[in-house]
Every structure is written in C-alpha cells, then in structure tokens.
C-alpha cells in the first residue's frame, strides 16, 4: 500500500506545479498548494480540495511567514517541492535588496528549506528542486557576483539560478542525508506554460509563439518527473543528490555542477546574505 505523504509544492498555482498538485492529490496524498497569486492559488486548491498558502518569493518576509504557517499546519512534511521560479526581463531589486531572479529562484527556496529543516529532518523528507537544462546552457556561478552586477542578462541570470538549484541539491545532500533528508533536482522538459510571461525577454516571445508551443510538452507531461520523485523512495527509486533529465541522472550538465567546493561556498554565501 502506497504511503500517504504530506507534500508542499511551491509555484503550484499554474504550470507543472498545478499539474503535479492535481496528480498527487488524486492519488491520495495531502497536498499543500503554495502560490504567489491569492486568486490563482485559491482556485487550484478549491478545484482539487487541497490546502493552500500564499507567498511572494520576491518578499522574504512572505517566505518567513509561509514557513511559520507550514510548521503550524503540518506535523510532518514528507516532500518539499521547491518549484516556484521564473525568468524576468530587466535587472530589478526586490524590497529585500537582492536581484529578483537570484532571490526568487535561489535565495527564497534556500531560506524556506532552512526554516523548515528541523521538521524535514524529523520527517525523513525529500527536497525536490525544479531546475532546468538552462543550467548547462547559460549558467555560471561567480560567488563574488551572485547578483550579476557586472554581466546581467535575463537568460544568463535564469540559467545561473538553475545551476544554483543543482548545487544547492548537492550540498543539501552532503549536509543532511545522514540525518534522513534526501534531495534531487530535475529538468521538467520544455513545457507549454506561463513561463516567461511578463518578463519582457525574448523567452516570452518564443514561448508565447503558437508555432513553438505546438512542439512543447503539456504541464501534465512536464510534471511527471516531479511526481515520480515525490512519490518515490530515495535510494530505491531515485538517487539522492542527483540532477535528473529525462527520468535519469543527467549524463551531461554544467561543469560547475560537480564542484563540491562551489556548492559549499554557495551555501555559506547564501547564509551570509540572509543573516
């Protein structure tokens, strides 16, 4: 008999997050839908009969509030799916003073995970990061310029944060796997969703093209790896610390993805920024 899990999914008001929430709730799990828009998040939660929380990852106080709400509502958290993220056009700073792409895609999920860590350890949880093949194509982490003050470009900043998702996964595994926490990152494929909308970048125009969208996977297809990781057993169905593409650990990725010293440095630098 399948274990019923408590699964928290961020970025679940649309796209693969919403599709995964539907699938996992349908198979009997307790799903907590987290999104930025109260209207869209509430609509998905009502549709499937799930719980919901609202948080804007461009505001770290929202992330802290979300963590407090989750700790109060969930005696255990079996899966934390850090799925929220996006690509943004111009370089802008959040109210917290960080470059928006860096904060939303890396720093906010890092903070949420750290705030929930005692509960995740006690639950023997899995932490899943939605990364991207963009990590390999455009990602480059410079610990002295994490916010791209010298070389900002929307696609470059996005690819770098997706590489940071992989590095965070590796370091999370190194630090906490012996205490029962497992971690994986994955590329969902090229999915027809709202990704890039409102960014003002060329990605918005490419992803919005009817011709391009005809060749993209549906969110229901794109969520399959997230669902497999959430329902699977680490060490049996998947390998903790790994980055997955097409259902298996990726054979090729960014050379920096395997740099253990860089992963450690990113973790420490992230903690410093949040201190």
From TrEMBL:
Top-rank taxon: Bacteria
Annotated GO MF terms: oxidoreductase activity
Pfam families assigned to the protein according to its UniProt record, in alphabetical order: adh_short
Gene3D superfamilies reported for this sequence: NAD(P)-binding Rossmann-like Domain
Keywords assigned: Oxidoreductase
Entry-linked InterPro entries: NAD(P)-bd_dom_sf, SDR_fam
The protein's name in its UniProt record: SDR family NAD(P)-dependent oxidoreductase
